[in-house]
Request: fold
Amino acid sequence: MRGLLSIFNSDIQKTRGNWGQILLVSLVIYLAALMMWEIYLDAENPILSVQDDYVRWAQARSSLSQNDACALVIVGESRSQMAIDLDEMEKFARSRPVQLSIIG
Amino acid sequence: MQFDSITFIVFFISVLTLYYVLRSVRQQKSLLLFASIVFYAAWNPYFIFLIAFSTLLDWQLAKKIIFSNKQKTKRNWLLLSLTSNLGLLGYFKYGEFLLQNFQKNLLLTGVNYQAPAVDIILPIGISFYTFQTLSYTIDVYRGKIKEPAPLLDFALYVSFFPQLVAGPIVRSNYFLPQCHDLKRFDTWHIGWGIFLLVSGLFAKVVLSDVLLAPFVDAVYQQPFKVGTVEAWAAVFAFSGQVFFDFSGYSLCAIGAAFSLGFSLPRNFNSPYAAISFSDFWRRWHISLSSWLRDYLYIPLGGSRNGELRTYLSLSITMLLGGLWHGASWQFVIWGALHGCYLVIERLLGFIYSNKTPSGDLYQLTVAVLIFVLVSITWIFFRAEDMTAVSAIFQALFHYQGNSIIIYDVSSKVLQIFILISLLFSFHWYSRNTSFLQIVESFPGWLKAVCLIFMMLGITLISSGDERAFIYFQF
Reply:
């Protein structure tokens, strides 16, 4: 067999025995890491859903109640949701505007 | 069936398990052929008949060429193979394009002809397997292959699922000898195969689809609203995207084939570290550029018939190479530009032969220049139409301030430049070696760490979008 083998022929024996262990160890650690990630997410208890608009709106609204009376709040439809860059606006406003023109 | 889908993972594990249970070469090859049919049929079952037709025709014609005594008869059989293969490719790939241009030209002469809608579906992978079957009949005609291949081996050569839809384009004298032996279960093959498969998926799913593609899409969807810095970032980002996408596919194909005991040729060799355009084409999509060299450039005369003829051969080869990528004038322009670069490079080499410095710094500067020119030329490859092309060029060379597009491109610019610098540096570092040799030098624990990191990246960072490989459309 040419191609790949020709690249390895000098060390072919040295590496031949390693791959079984490498695959096994990698698979075990990978599955363990995934499991830990799942457990962590479960402990955080987030509401996971494809449609997260309600949660995002609620989070934005709750941050508003903690703000001072001068908070800049953006309400409206998709035009104000899509066309306003909060980072840019933050440079001119005193604090970060609260974006409420999101579905929810 | 995409490599980066759960369906493929289930399919591949099933094939791999069954494959190593079988105890005869014939059974193993039959299984691979069946699996390849299923793999292709998952996209469109009807086009299986097209591959079968192409396979049977070229297998028969090759036998006729081998067993004919007269040169003229051999040539006629070859002509039939060329006509039928290129005819099918022409119809499916260029039919609509030719019709549209015919209509436009008639309109210029005042005739308003409306052709009936044909709606030709492009069979996926047709450009790749057509080139494979053609190389077989041409090699037989040239006398490089003296014995006809068994039908099962030839059918597997044409339809082998790891490389069926987007290459690498394998030569028959490379693949067919590998069909003779029984493949036994071997952790070395499986290990390397899976490592390469995962590396390819990581390049595609994480580096291309998550880190680069959204930026490129955002800029190219609204090219009139983009600022100069963002336009340059998008141009380089697409260089990275197309490389990770296509080399990722090639790594997946090589890895999947290697797990099954088959070796496929290398398709990329640090292309962005090229120090000339001819060097670039020796490093980018190697299986296509070497095919074009052997079956088009050399038959056209190559560099044997004087400088002018060489320039002509180079230009025609690159023009057709561009057109191979798709039925669009943009691909023709892309190919023509690369043809021009090669001609100019050859002219400069002719004038300044042995007068160019050879230090590392000089080579690095040239490599950066080549990379920038290649990246700019990719604009024709990526943009939707010529209006978008001119908008991007406008943004690149006439300073425009901030972008005003919805996707937050400005904050991603630094990330893009860092990623592309890393890609270029890696290519420069590995220009005289290979990805495989670098991984080979790692100790076992580091290979495992890389594998775990890439598998977690694919699982956790994946955008979840089913973004087709760019080269599937060719």
Observations:
- The CA atoms of residues 18 and 48 of chain A lie 40 Å apart.
- Chain A touches chain B at residues 1-5, 7-8, 11, 15-23, 25-26, 29-30, 33-34, 37, 82-83, 85, 87 (CB under 8 Å).
- Chain A is about 60% helix and 5% strand.
